[in-house]
User: What shape does this take?
Amino acid sequence: MTWLELADDAPFGLSTLPYGVFSDVGTPPRVGVRVGDRVLDLAGVARALSHERADVFSQPSLNAFMQLGPQQCQEVRAWIGQLLEDPAHRDLVERHLVDVDSVVLHLPVEVADYVDFYASESHASNVGKIFRPESPDLPPNWRHLPIGYHGRAGTVVVSGTDVVRPAGQRRPGSDGVPPFGPSASLDVECEVGFVIRGPTELGASVPVSEAREHLFGVVLLNDWSARDIQAWEYVPLGPFLGKSFATSISAWVVPFEALAESQVPLPGQDPPVLPYLRGETDSDLFGMDLHLEVRVNGSLVSSPQFRDMYWSPAQMLAHLTVNGASLRTGDLFASGTVSGTDPATYGSLLERTWNGTDPIVLEDGTTRGFLEDGDQVTLSGWAPGPAGTRVTLGEVTGTITPQGHPRRGHSLG
Ligand code: MN
Assistant: This one.
C-alpha cells in the first residue's frame, strides 16, 4: 500500500527501490532512490528528518552508504519503504521527489577494482569454438574454477556515456605486419555486475557462506569488446586493450535485499568443485533468475537468462579472495557474458552472428555482424519479486561514436 500514484506493475515499483547518484541544475551529486519515473532525494529527505545517517546520502557515490554494512543498509531500505507508504510523510516526501527525466545520473559507485568472470558454459564453449577451433571447446580449468581477469576500474562509465570506437593492432595477414586502425568487430557483452561492500583484511578470504554480507547490489553491465584487437593480443595473458577502453554500467544499483525471490538453485556442477567453492548449505550456492534483453537500435537481438550460469556469484567472490586478496568497498565484479544454449539467448554478437558470418537483421532491415558507428546498445532486465511483482534492473545503454568524434558525458534520465 502506498499513497504514491504508482501501478503495481509499473517499472521500479516498491519491490525494487534501487540506489543511484543524481544531480539537478545547480546542485551537487547525491544519493537518490528510483521510484517509478521519479527519484527520491535521499539526502534532502534525510536532512529534513534529521536522519542519523544523512551524511552518507550527501556523498557523490554510494560507497559511504554501502560501507555502513548489511544491517544498516537493510534498516535504510525499511525506512524508505515507510516514507513511501505512510501518508503521514506524504507532504515532506513529495517535496523531495523529482522527475527522472529532469536530472543527471552519475556513475553510482566509485569503482575500486574491477574483475570480469567467464561463468557461462555456453559462452565459454562458443568462444572456444570460434577462437580456438583446433582445441577442446572448454579449457581444462573451466569446470574447476570461475575463470576471470582484472579489468580497468577507471574506464567503468555510467549508462548513457558514448563509447568511442577503439583503435588497435589486429592479427597480421600474409605480410606478417599487424594492421592498425579502428576496430572492425566491436561487440557487446551482456553481463550482470555485482557491487561489493568491504573492507576485508589482506590475507583473509571470504568463504562462499559469507559472500552475501559483501554483495551489496546488482547492475547491468556491458563489457564492450573489440574482437579483432582481442583475438591478436589475448595469448598468453588474457584480455587487455580489446576490453579496457570502456565498460558501461546501469545508473541504478538494485540492492540484494530486493533480489531474495530471484535466488534459485544452480543448474548443477560436474565434476564436484573443491571444498572452498562449496557452501555450507544448499542456499549458499545460489543462481539468479534474472531475465535480460539486448537491443541494438531498439531491435531485440537476444534474451539471455542468468539462471543458466554455471558458477554462483558467491563462488566467484570466494574464488576472487581465496588467495588472500582483500576487498574494498566499491569493488565490482561481472559475471561474464550471459549466454544459454539457444542462439536467441546468446549475449554477444560474436556468438549471435558467429563471428560475423551469419549477420542478424534489425527491424529497419539493416544487418549487423558487429556494431557500426551510431549504433545504440541497450541492456535491460527484470527479476521476480514478492507476490508476483517484478523487480526492475537498471538499464544500461551506450552509443558507438567514431574515432575523433566529440563524445557526450552523462545522459539525462
Ligand atoms: Mn566479459
